[in-house]
Design brief:
Length: 397
């Protein structure tokens, strides 16, 4: 089968954190002997060493390439909210995305768009070339977008002109059905998981491998260092805990717009011994960090269904996470397999970390219950790809 993927976010090198779930789906379909083209942006740090690079059809939208910053530090919504320069880039991004997509959808069997921006591009290609279009909704802010009259019109247009809508979490399907989209036209297809990678390992061994002291209490964050991930609230909690004499170690894995700012604060406030910013790590290394920690904190302000929390649960890490839709409804049962906290509340993070470190039995229960819970709701990327293939075949038949 010939599949053209349209996505505004895709890894630019091996180990990149740009939308690894889209990459995993594409790679799995390629390994299953399907012909996949991926239309995606080029980045100003593009390295050309991705293992499926020959399948990508990258487009540039600014010259010189170093001016392309719209998607570089946490995705398009984050860029647009922070920078007037990003707003200038956006129409150029859409135009060149469309041109590249038109060229690469003409001879495909199915168009698969990720995020509704790609869906809008996909609708144009579908109508011009008479193709079938499947949309996967991945928006963290879907409910907020639908409160805007203008945005709701665009989203409804895309939904009505898509042949099928797959949501990457269980909540989106209901929201879309409530908009009047036929129920038979939408279904949840959760992201697959690297079940071969994310599993419990020997904590002492992984700490030796990563150079983490064996006798320390370790808190971990993994994700984009951007405002919507709430990382600054974890930083404040960590700083206050250290200042009150707690000898905890905090590891921040990831990169983004806030990385340099927070790293500067660490140095200015002499927190280097306890707060460690280690930058981006390859996806295959993340399970080691998750197994090395005693607590995984995810203070995000809004999410769909965050893969990183599910991965931490699969690795046996006890979870502290914000009480938001994608976590509350699909991942964490408060007090049973993790603790939920209010958004934008560093004091609550600080309090819950202390509670867990003072209660080893609770840490063990959250670890065991989290694994049992997520194992029942997890399938491999091969299973995920098969679910999409069934949809593709149904549409084109």
């Amino acid at each position: 089968m010939k599949i053209t993927m349209l996505t505004p976010s895709f890894p630019s090198y091996n180990g990149d954190v740009q939308s690894p779930f889209v990459y995993q789906l594409c790679k799995t379909l390629i390994n299953m002997k399907h012909e996949v083209k991926i239309v995606c942006p080029s980045y100003n740090y593009y390295k050309r060493d991705l293992d499926i690079e020959k399948n990508t059809r990258r487009f540039r939208y600014m010259w010189p390439k170093k001016l392309q910053t719209l998607t570089s530090e946490g995705g398009i919504p984050s860029g647009l909210s922070k920078s007037n320069w990003a707003k200038i880039q956006f129409p150029f991004f859409c135009f060149f995305f469309l041109i590249k997509s038109l060229k690469n959808t003409k001879d495909c069997d199915i168009i698969h768009a990720h995020w509704t921006l790609s869906g809008l591009i996909g609708v144009i290609c579908k109508k011009l070339w008479n193709k079938k279009l499947i949309l996967t909704t991945r928006e963290s802010l879907l409910e907020k977008y639908l409160k805007s009259y203008f945005m709701k019109k665009i989203f409804l247009y895309v939904y009505r002109n898509s042949d099928f809508i797959a949501s990457a979490n269980e909540n989106h399907s209901k929201i879309i059905s409530d908009l009047g989209i036929p129920i038979e036209k939408t279904r949840s297809v959760l992201n697959g998981m690297r079940v071969d990678l994310f599993k419990s390992r020997d904590k002492k061994e992984v700490r030796k491998q990563l150079g983490i002291p064996l006798d320390k209490k370790v808190v971990l964050f993994v994700g984009w260092m951007i405002e919507r991930k709430g990382v600054s609230y974890l930083f404040e909690a960590a700083r206050d805990l250290v200042n009150e004499g707690k000898d905890y170690l905090f590891y921040f894995v990831g990169d983004g717009a806030l990385y340099e700012e927070l790293l500067k604060k660490v140095k200015e406030e002499n927190l280097e011994d306890n707060l460690k910013f280690v930058g981006r790590k390859e996806h295959t290394e993340i399970p080691l960090w998750m197994n090395a920690c005693d607590i995984f904190v995810f203070p995000s302000l809004f999410e769909g269904r965050p893969n990183v929390v599910a991965e931490a649960m699969m690795s046996g890490a006890p979870i502290i996470a914000t009480d938001i839709t994608g976590i509350r409804d699909e991942l964490i049962i408060d007090g049973k397999n993790g603790i939920m906290i209010p958004s934008k509340n560093s004091k609550s993070i600080q309090e819950k970390i202390n509670i867990l470190f003072n209660n080893p039995k609770m840490l063990e229960e959250f670890s065991n219950n989290g694994k049992i819970f997520i194992d029942k709701k997890t399938y491999s990327w091969e299973d995920c790809a098969k679910r999409y293939l069934a949809i593709y075949e149904n549409l084109i038949s």
